[in-house]
Amino acid sequence: YVGGMTEVVFAHEGTVAKVIGDGIQILFNAPGDQPDFATRAVACARDLDVWAQEFCERWKSSGVNFGKTRIGVHAGPAMVGNFGGNRFFDYTAYGDTINTAARLEGANKLLGTRICVSATIAKGAQDFKGRPVGDLMLRGRSEPLRAYEPLAADAFDGAAAKLDAGDAGAMPAFAALVGLHSDDALAGFHLRRLLNGAKGVRVQLE
Description:
Elements (H helix, E strand, L loop, with lengths): L1 H10 L3 E6 L2 E5 L9 H24 L10 E3 L5 E6 L4 E6 L1 H16 L3 E4 H6 L6 E7 L7 E5 L5 H11 L4 H11 L4 H11 L6 E3 L2
């Protein structure tokens, strides 16, 4: 699994900074400059998702069930370089940007998504197409972070716009979406929120 995912990263000229269990920390724009780092990161995330899905299907046919691969993507300043001492050091990255990417990865589990990218990435990536997830209140952050699921625009955008505007029509709009696409986990997530009395796009994450 890790070997295959790593090959996808290298194909997009990303840097594998760290492997922790089945988690992989990937960097773009480091160590060398990549002006198109946001575009690369989104393309890499999409291809990682496709590869992971195919990997799971291959093993499922052999009776082995793997968990879902979840991906978080964010951009910003970070401390990047060789950290350690005289006997041991490794090339990695630290800082709020790295922590936020990890929090976005974790947010997928609650949202029902597999890829969650920040607005910073969405704005920086060329020809980005994505569905607005909401304004996420991530652990360790005092301000909400707008996030997107990198999928082509569809009827979800209309329902999301109603949600963003506080329109009462958001609930029937999401209900209609779920009725047509019962496997749309993000639409189902927002419908449950609305049915439980939530309003707007701000989502509190634990």
